[in-house]
Amino acid sequence: MKENIKSLFIIVLGNLLLTSAYAFLTVPNNIINGGVTSTSLLLSYYFHVDIGYVVTILIILLLFFGRVMLGKDFFYRSLFSSACYMVFFNLFHMTGISFTFSPIVIVVLAGIFVGVGRFLCLMEDSSTVGYDAFALYIHEKHKRLETSDVLCVIELVIILSGFATFGILSVIYGIIFTIIETQIMYFLEKGYKVPIKKIRAIE
Questions:
Q1: Distance between CA 159 and CA 175 in Å, rounded?
Q2: Cα–Cα distance measured from residue 109 to residue 24, given in angstroms and rounded to the nearest whole number
């Protein structure tokens, strides 16, 4: 019982770090880091739909992908994480609070927050309701490919796709963001020796 409560607390904390970084730092400054929220930012810009709605729809789609490809255990643990992400992001987004100080400071802070938040969720075998589901699935099929490396590739593709929308600075900041985020994950994974790349049940 205590272990389950601890696991849920870690997932909640991870999502708080993720959503606060996105809602208060990256989204208001149009920084594309390559995740679901960045994809939502691009879609929101082109289709003039509130980003909160887009985030929710994409998360639900990815959640079903996880259920089909990664099994019931992963799905149920990700369901809780998904609910946390959707609730926290929409609440933070609705406050209208944003920080627009030095872009470099924003990128560094956001990269640290997202790297730690994503690690905490993956440490509990729970998707951070982003492209982590794809990364974990690919790693399961190709053991030589690390989860963090696969995420880096996915995110870089999305970052480059945002060039025409928000310009070269958004791409540069996004690349720096991604490097910081993945290095934080790599450091934590090696330092704590936590096998975040394992999946408990593939069905």
A1: 7
A2: 11
Tell me the Ramachandran region of residue 65: left when phi exceeds 0, alpha when psi lies from -120 to 50, beta otherwise: alpha
Residue 105 to residue 109: CA distance in whole angstroms:
6
Encoding tokens for residue 72? 């019931």
Pairwise CA distance, residues 47 & 130, whole Å = 21
Please enumerate in sequence order all residues whose Cβ is within 8 A of that of 52, keeping only pairs 6 or more positions apart, or say none. Answer: 89, 90, 93, 94
- Render each residue's pLDDT in the chain as its tens digit; 203 residues: 677 788 889 999 999 999 999 999 999 999 887 788 889 999 999 999 999 999 999 989 888 887 887 777 777 777 888 899 999 999 999 998 888 788 899 999 999 999 999 888 888 877 666 787 778 788 878 877 777 788 778 877 888 888 888 888 888 898 898 889 889 988 888 776 655 544 333 22
Which DSSP helix (H) or strand (E) runs through 37? helix 36-47
Cβ atoms of 187 and 179 closer than 8 Å:
no
- Tell me the C-alpha distance between 116 and 36, whole Å: 17
| SS3 assignment, position 125 | coil
Q: Give domain limits for the chain.
A: 2-192
11, two tokens: 């997932």
